[in-house]
Amino acid sequence: MREPEFQQSGWRNRMTNPIRIIVTDDHQLVRTGLAEMLQRLDGIEVVGQAENGEEALFLCQKLKPDLILMDVQMEGMGGISAVRSLKQHHPGVKTIALSTFSAPETVRAMLDAGACGYLLKNITTEELESAIRKVDQGETVIASDIEASAAKPDSVDSSEFADVVLGTQQQKVLMLLTKGFTNPEIAAHLGFSTTTARYHVSAILTKLGVSNRAEATAIAIRNGLIDETKL
Prior knowledge:
Layout lengths: L7 H9 L2 E6 L3 H12 L4 E7 L2 H11 L3 E4 L8 H11 L4 E6 L4 H10 L3 E4 L4 H12 L4 E2 L25 H11 L4 H8 L3 H15 L4 H10 L9
Parallel strand pairs: 1-2, 1-3, 3-4, 4-5, 5-6
Helix pairs in contact: 3-4, 4-5, 5-10, 7-9, 7-10, 8-9
């Protein structure tokens, strides 16, 4: 059996007091597969599974985990918003982002929100285990194939988005996107149809030059494009 990459004293403690983990991912097969794999590792206990950020927050309050594996883009509350809320309400709980997205803006936004690490889903079991144990010991882990600049606070040039102009409704929609709202929820909150909500989301993604909500959320948070007073 290979030697785990962390302090032996921590290992002995974790044999009788395992690292309690919640796995958060909106794909059931991914979520279940991760949970089953982690459950086979010594000193690690999967105490819950969540399909989005809101459910992760609920389970965190109920199950008192040590660490949460968090997907970035999910239906409902996404990873960035969830990590920000966890940092505020459960500062002792550590989070590791586990995603397919490697854009520097997304990585930086997750780390700024309070994540202790950012990993890609193509990692091996051994790499994930090592990362979990390192974060449990207080370290920060970043996937080796993510651009080094993504982990640097000054890596994002906000001037790139200085000329982005969003209408009043689009600013409101973008704010709700950063909070993890779905299109129907945006429509209900702002009083228009789901089709209109979908149109505004598409327009926002186009203006920001991104292809998904996670990247839009990351850019909005990193570059101060949201103003809660407009809601």
